[in-house]
Amino acid sequence: MNVFEALLLGLIQGVTEFLPISSSGHLILIPAIFNLPLPTLSLVAVAHIGTLVAVLIYFRQDLSQIIRGVATGLRKGKPLENTHARLGWYIVAASIPIVVAGLLLSDFLEAVFDSPSAAAFFLLVTAVILVIGERLYSGQKKLAHMSWLDTMIIGFVQVLALLPGISRSGSTITAGLWRELDRTDAARFSFLLGIPAILGAGILGLADILAADDLAAQLPVIVTVFLTAAVSGYACIYFLLYWLRQHSLYLFAVYCAVLGGFYLLVYPA
Where are the domains of the chain? Predict the structure, then answer.
């Protein structure tokens, strides 16, 4: 992979990880459409680490409060005593379904990821999910008022994002809207919930990167992927939270429908 392709990989991952348009779908479809080589799993891992850094920096104050809240609650023997402590445990609980499903369905998912047509089809599903989210949107509930039922519903819906083309942020934001969270708080919880998933995706390929014989030669590409994913990811978190204060998810639904439909019509299986 050359530096230009590394720049493109980092940009695709950074933009599509947080906007509700599916990073996995784009990482499969863009190379298929433009006849580019598929990125290696190790470089995709680098891109995930870049987006992980972006979300950690953006939500650094929230995460600091969550960590302090959890630590204080455990020290007092009251783990759910305050809002930030509860939010920390909500993130842990809501991450369990996707971890279990990922382990149980690993062989099936590996086969699905080899199919651009499947990714295009599931982009259409993402478009439907986003429309449903807007149709369900009715409440103004804040994160402080989330319940365990809200948490587990969002966590189980996140499992859908194991399929290429299903947006993780889109599906979890939609679940949050269903549970009457307002748009920005649904997005904030989606981003915080994404931290364990993104971390897991990054760790899977990190060992291969560190063990590579030509690590020094790959450094320009690795640094390019990482920095591009981190900067574009941070910008897209800011953009989506700003957008959702005044706008709906319909724009992203239209985009997913156009891209998925275009591939299925122009590049039929």
Answer: 3-266
